[in-house]
Amino acid sequence: MPNLNLQPVRLVLFLLPAFLAFPIAGYPISKCQDENGKWHYGDNAASVCGNARITIMDDRGRKVDEVAPPMTVEEFNALEAEEIRKAAEDKLEAKRQQERRRILAIYPREESIIRARDERLKGMDNNIRVQEELMDDMRLDLKALEAKKVPADATAKKKLESRKKLQQANIDEYYQAITRLRREREQAAQKYDRILREFRELTGE
Question: Looking at residues 59-66, what average pLDDT do you find?
Fold first, then answer.
C-alpha cells in the first residue's frame, strides 16, 4: 500500500523541471487587428485576422517582432513579373557592355570606324548599282519582246508569251533583291552610326 503513493510524487517531480525551464510568463503573445478594428490576442490571432499583419509581443506588452501578411495572388504575380523584367534588363545591359568592349577591341580610333563604314557602304552601293543595271537590261529585253509582232502560229505565239512571262519573273526577282539590298544598306549605315556614337561615349571624344 505505501508504494502506491509514490507514483504521483514521481510524476510531479518529473514535470517540475519542464515548468522551470519554460516559464509561462516567457511565452510570446500574438496580437492583430481584424478588418472591423477589433484586436485579437493569443495563438489564434493569425487565423482570426486572416491576412492582417501580426504583432508579436512579450508578456509585458512590448513589441518584439512583426510578421508581414502573406502576399495576395496579384502581389505575387506583380513581384514575379518585376523579377522577370529586371532579369531581362540585366541581360540586355550585360549584352550592351559586351558589345562596347568589342567595339573598343576592334576600333582603336574613330577614323577606323569611319573608314570601315565608308568601305562597307561603298561596296553595297556598287552591288546595288550592278543589280539595277542588269534589271534595266532585262526591262529593255522585255520591251523588245513586247514590240514583236504576235505570230500567227499558235506554237510560236505560246513560245513568245512564255518568254515574256519568264523575263517579267526575272525582273520581279531582281527588283525584290535590290529592295532587300537597299534595306540592308540602310541597316548597315545605322549600325555604324551607333558604333560611332557608342565609341565617342566610351572614349569621351
Answer: 76
